[in-house]
Design brief:
homodimer, mainly alpha, 254 residues
Chain lengths: 254, 254
């Protein structure tokens, strides 16, 4: 699955153009544009649909430390590892302060689902599982440059999370006990993105490497987008979860 | 990703009950029930939607020899390998007689798409790629018993293919030059399924192994189903392909 770098005779992009390329990709492909998020932000999701979202996205959250550990496991750069391991700590916690996974379980509970359902993964959509596994697989089989570049969706996360926090509080006040994950990410995501972007800029020296870094961010956007596609298709329109998937406890409006 | 066999105190199923379990799973979960196929068989798909189907399913077809080679690569049973390699030959061909991949490319061409688009994979849905990669990954990380059991969707293939051949000829006569793949599978699928079922029955001796074999068939049904979910969502209802995906050349009726 490892992608051979495509040979090109084009000169390397300037740092400004290289960075602008990431932002252009985000503008086109980041999941802030997905209609599932638009319905969420407009207050049009039912509790059952939010349960399906929290349940399925837990599977993503729970795999982020595996993804980051796979990156750590392939880096021979001690300084990089020290910086990157922060992510595993942020998500797994330290046994005292809750990490991102625990905070997401609080969100699952705030929707009214038992945490055990998320932990066991019962009823998670196959489309969710395949997309998440693709992310772990991607970072395990591509260069660390591409793996770090794939994390750069965090460049766009703060804006989406700030909007989401506002709208969740406004439209779904019964979720208010479950929003710690997002308040944490308001500061973590920009810190992580700053480090990752500086590292990618420093290590993508040729045009081939720059193109591969841009492609990695596109691939990551696809992974996020596909998870919302699966949710939208199963739970919103036309609304048939595949055999064995979570069925919301209330009717889904058509 | 390897699944540990779940311990159970239940006795092994009789051969008849074990086999009946596969058929019950197929009845519930095989993709003959997916609404995409129902629209296809009712003659309600546009040429553009059939192009999207042929293009995306080519990605599945082209990965079947990789899946079967992964199974071969993990089997120490010479007799099994001799039997199983037939599948690689059936799909890849022998350089003279076309194999399944080449026949599927003829189907792609019959829909009006150039074969190069399928070969390069341009515009294939991310959801298709993730589901197909999951199949290769599944057989590479589970026991050969589970990998062979996953192939048992072929038990149900003949009936679906016979119906599909009838309906494609009836509703989409312009596809008639592209149907060799299906006529070939009318005999190959039952032969392959007979061998695989006999092998699975012989090698699943404990209830744990029998349960794992049933679970593998469920996992495979999910993989097939998820591919049609992705197609249905992108191209039928409500009809927005994700950024970068194939866009049919004619409007999709709502």
């Amino acid at each position: 699955m490892t992608t051979a770098l495509e040979r090109t005779d084009k000169p390397a992009l300037s740092e400004a153009d290289f960075i602008a390329g990431f932002h252009a990709i985000g503008e086109e492909r980041y999941h802030h544009k997905h209609p599932f998020h638009q319905l969420m932000h407009d207050g049009q999701l039912t509790r059952g649909q939010l349960q399906a979202w929290a349940l399925n996205r837990y599977y993503y959250q729970s795999h982020i430390p595996l993804k980051d550990a796979a990156i750590l496991a392939r880096s021979h750069d001690h300084t990089f590892r020290v910086a990157w391991r922060k992510r595993v700590l942020d998500q797994d916690g330290d046994g005292v302060t809750p990490g991102g996974i625990e905070k997401w379980l609080k969100l699952v509970e705030a929707t009214g689902l038992p945490r055990i359902q998320a932990v066991t993964g019962e009823g998670i959509l196959p489309g969710t599982r395949y997309a998440v596994q693709e992310y772990v697989h991607f970072v395990s089989t591509h260069s660390n440059l591409e793996a770090v570049a794939a994390s750069l969706t965090e460049l766009f996360a703060r804006k989406l999370i700030a909007l989401r926090l506002d709208r969740l509080r406004e439209h779904y006040p019964w979720l208010s006990t479950g929003l710690d994950y997002f308040t944490g990410r308001l500061t973590q995501a920009p810190e992580d993105a700053d480090f990752a972007l500086a590292w990618v800029v420093r290590h993508a020296r040729t045009r081939e490497e720059q193109d591969a870094a841009h492609a990695a961010l596109r691939a990551k956007c696809d992974i996020l987008w596909a998870q919302l596609d699966a949710l939208y298709f199963a739970y919103i329109n036309p609304g048939w979860p595949p055999p064995g998937a979570f069925v919301p406890p209330e009717p889904v409006p058509q």
